[in-house]
Amino acid sequence: MKPILITGATGFIGRHLALRLLDEGKPVRVLVRDPQRLDPRLQQRTQVFVGDLTMSDSLLAPVRGVSSLFHCAANVHTWDRRDAYWAANVDGVENLLRALDNGGDLPERFVHFSSVDVYGFPKLPARESDPLQPTGFGYGDSKQAGEDLLRHRAASMGLPYTILRPCNVMGEGSPFVERIGKELRSGLMLLVDRGKADCGYLDVQNLVDAALWLAQEPQAQGEIYNLRDPGTISWRQFVRDLREGLKGHGLVLNLPYGVAMVSAHALATPYATLKIRSEPLLHPLIVQIFGRTCGHCIDKVQASGAPLGRRGYPESMAQALRAFQQNV
Which uninterrupted H or E stretch holds 112? Predict the structure, then answer.
């Protein structure tokens, strides 16, 4: 069998995806910048190619002869320079597509992991067909641009693709759980408007289920899908359950949306003006994440028949807590 290529296998989603494919007996090839950061199981059982999305020449060998490609690699930081987001999330996509175009046979499917951040942060859930406007944030705008680039280049190349827009991916090893969990143990955690907004909960194993299913489905070719678990989990419930599971003693501070946004701008402005690389305690993107819905519409993927929600919220939270307590 031809190998399946995964970019970003040292990251959260890419690691789980690669491990699942190995468990299913599939040959896996990974493209990473630092192989020492790979899960030991991936170091031992995959074809490892060292490369960088910003270096075109390093992409030619890993893309050659693959059956499909899952592009998970991205700059997902909540605070970074706009050019840094563009280098990874736009130029990186361009370089990867150029390598595929120059490498001979195209894969049967290019599965691109985008984000619901492309919608900005509307008050109401968004659908895939909703027009996209500039978000005002480097991450969301760069993911918009990366999607646009893929659609146009794929049309000229004849490349079959599917775009996934996951909501907030949780579960074992989730960066969300690690970041919030540390604050809930002994720090300060912010809730906006008492945490009433939908957190857009998506267990990573449920994401892998849907991604692998959609990658094989003819009807998913050329389509875009929002992905989250069925049902609604608010930030209030998520933070409460995580705090209780950790027996945390951190302070949970609630602010009205308007107050939180004013505070965020006041704290972030000096960092942006002085081009300070470290992340401020609070900035507008954080307020938007916790103050506006992240639970976008999944009618389209439900209608497709893709598997959703196999791992329920209680099991997902238990797995996340177990991993956090083992690693932190």
Answer: strand 109-113
pLDDT exceeds cutoff 80 at 328: no
CB 127 within 8 A of CB 297: yes
Per-residue tokens: 53: 């999305």
Residue 241: which residues within 8 A CB-CB, separation 6 or more? 317
Whole-angstrom Cα Rg for the chain: 19
The model's pTM? 0.97
| CA distances, 209 to each of 77, 91, 242 (Å) | 25, 29, 24
At CA 199, angle to CA 91 and CA 238, rounded to 5? Answer: 130
Taking the CB of residue 95, how many other CB atoms lie within 10 A of it? 20
Compute the distance between CA of residue 89 and CA of residue 142 in angstroms, rounded to an integer: 6
Q: Indicate the length of the chain as a whole number.
A: 328
Q: Per residue in 229-288, pLDDT tens?
A: 999 999 999 999 999 999 999 999 999 999 999 999 999 999 999 999 999 999 999 999
The residue whose two tokens read 């984000």 is 115
Buried b (16+ CB within 10 A) or exposed e, 216-228: eeeebeebbbbbb
Enumerate the H helices of 158-226 as residue ranges: 175-186, 204-216
What is the rounded CA–CA span in Å between residue 222 and residue 214? 11
Element (H, E) at 140: helix 138-157
Contacts of 277 (CB under 8 A, 6+ apart): none
**DSSP bridge partners of 165:** 226
Exposure pattern of 1-38 as b/e (b: 16+ CB <10 Å)? eebbbbbbbbbbbbbbbbbbbbeeebebbbbbeeeeeb
